[in-house]
User: What shape does this take?
Amino acid sequence: MDPLSPPPPPPATAAAAAAGEGAGCCDLKLLGSWASSYTHRVQLALKLKGLEFEYAEEDLSNKSPALLQSNPVYQKVPVLLHSPRGAVTESLVILHYLDDAFPALRPLLPSDPFDRALARFWCHFADDKLGPAVGAVFASSGEAQKAAVAQVHENLKLIENELREGAFKGKRFFGGDGIGILDIVLGCGSYWLAVFEEVTEAKLVDPDAFPLFYAWLKDFEAQEEVKDTIPAIDRLLEYARGLRQMILSHTTTATAAAAAATTAAATSTNIAVDSST
Amino acid sequence: MGVKLLDAWVSPFGQRVRIALAEKGVEYEYVEENLAEKSRLLLESNPVHKKIPVLIHDGNPVCESLIIVEYIDDVWDKKPHLLPAHPYLRAQPRFWADFVDKKIYECGTRLWKLKGEEQAEAKKEMIEILKLLAAELGDKTYFGGDAFGFVDVALVPFTSWFYSYERCAGFSVEAECPEIVAWAKRCMERESVKKTLYDPEKVYEFVCFLKKRYGVE
Assistant: This one.
């Protein structure tokens, strides 16, 4: 199937949407991948909101018709199916949707428009800058990796600064007293930092260099819903070691490493598994 | 303290914000930034990316064009609403505006910056992107349906770049996606769009200047 061919029209009409009014929690189904941090974002959000949902693990080397039909543009997980309305795709779009659809249940976004804009800005930073930088560390070695590590540190410095004297000064979580959308987005990528440190021997989060970020991360990881969402560390390590072996055996030049970086930047998504075959 | 916009005339990202402000009838001070010599205000307001547009509202800076547009819709919570009220109907424009953000500018840049096979590849991709958008538009007046909305704001500034893409890469948007061209014409009937977008020839002049600067013949 051509991934860029026009999708069938979704039931995005007012009538179809209105038909979903009062839809129960069991009408939620999540298509995901166990190692995808984008999937974890949605799982965590659903748990924080106390929403029941059905989970379907996708084999990314053999994507289900449900996935291909519900996300024809990207053919990626996560996809949230909310019957009878339809599919919502792209993790940040899904998180916003959950807040819009279930406003009474533990909001993920702040109520103030400026605070919302700020949370969105840093979510975008996490996806646009920090994520790819971490992926680049994982996909490279030698001098290229040193440069990638420096980039990660630059990005973490910016976040540390916001915690120390910027927008999030004095807060326990980015969302305030409780976990919010930015905690979810940053947190569900950040556990990979420890995994990558172990597998690549690059030092990413030095508690002395980034004390506030480090403290926040430990606090985040200690939350019940988070412990319930993130896979066991040995499973993540095994997965990362396997991927790292594959990357290193295929990349011998800096150019190839850069190309692999794009692939591995999505290690925390499903793309890496998919395009590595 | 009011509303101030740090921007650059040709930026399609800045134009998104200008269109949104115009649609809402918000008065603001426009500040043209010299991107070769960024102002202290810009560097202080957007220290992370140092980019325009930046909306400064009562002294508070908001960065990233689509985030700014959504902020404008949030704060000036009156008609026209750029995002619909219904949760599921809000998710669709978020998805497609994000799609425009991920695809158009990057692919468009490759169209004027590259040559040969790489340019041909970019041309193929651009046509596919526009066809996908045309399919999403369907026979609606706007991407927002009857109402001009979030996706329309996200995409319409790039329509004044179509001529540049066509000249550089050798294809016709009208021939490939007449629905998109028809939609663009409808958008241009709106005051907010008409007074914000520049003539495609002027944009092409700018692209030629960029090409010279990057040594692209």
